[in-house]
Structure formats: structure tokens, C-alpha cells
Design brief:
By secondary structure, the chain is an alpha+beta fold. Helices cover about 40% and strands about 30% of the residues. A hairpin with a 2-residue loop joins strand 4 (about 60-70) and strand 5. The mean pLDDT is about 90.
Length: about 130
Amino acid sequence: MASGHEFFSSADPDAVRSVVAQALSGAGFTVETTPAGGFVAKRGSIPMTVLFGGMAGRQLYMSFTVEIMHLDGQVVARLGRVAASAVVTGGAIGAAKADTVFKDTANAIGAAMHAAGILTSSRQTS
């Protein structure tokens, strides 16, 4: 189970933020900006997840973070999990579904950055 994914770019940080935010929104997440210039992306319903656990379907609540930073002369967008989002509230089924959504979301961000011509590389982190 991957806990993070990093996307590297030589583009302007604002361009990276814009593409990442659009990719998250396109994947069904509500995107909130953090004071540090990153995002918290949320989707699903806490009440539905509490009631139905991992069987809540698309209403399974989950939350991811995105940090935008400079590293080795590049802009990095780091997608990470919020540890307790689907695991605690959705049980084992919720954890498995959250893992799939995390991978799909990482793929969507990578594809969006590639399509925009701003992705130089990416890697999964643990």
C-alpha cells in the first residue's frame, strides 16, 4: 500500500498547483487550499461511511493531502494519504478501496501533468 507519490516539474509552482487542483476536482474531490500553498482533497460522506463502512461505495469518505515544495531545483507535488480517513471509518474494505482510489488519483495527476507538458518524473514513496 503506497503512502505517497511525488510528481516533479520544472514549471512554475502556480502552474503545477493549477493542474493538480484540476486533476483532483476531475476525480471528484473537493479541494481546499492550505496555508502552505498545498491542498487537502476530500470526497465522500462521513455519515455514509460511518453507517455503511466500506460498502458506502462512492460515498466512502477519504482525504488526501498535496504539498507543493521545491526539491533539488524542481517543483514537487507530493500526494499523501490522511491516515485515518477510510481505514478507520471504512474498515478493511474501506482501506482497500481507498488504496485503489489513491492509485487512480496519482495516475490522474500524473496524466494531467504529462498532458500539460510539465511532468519531468514521478515516483511512489512509502
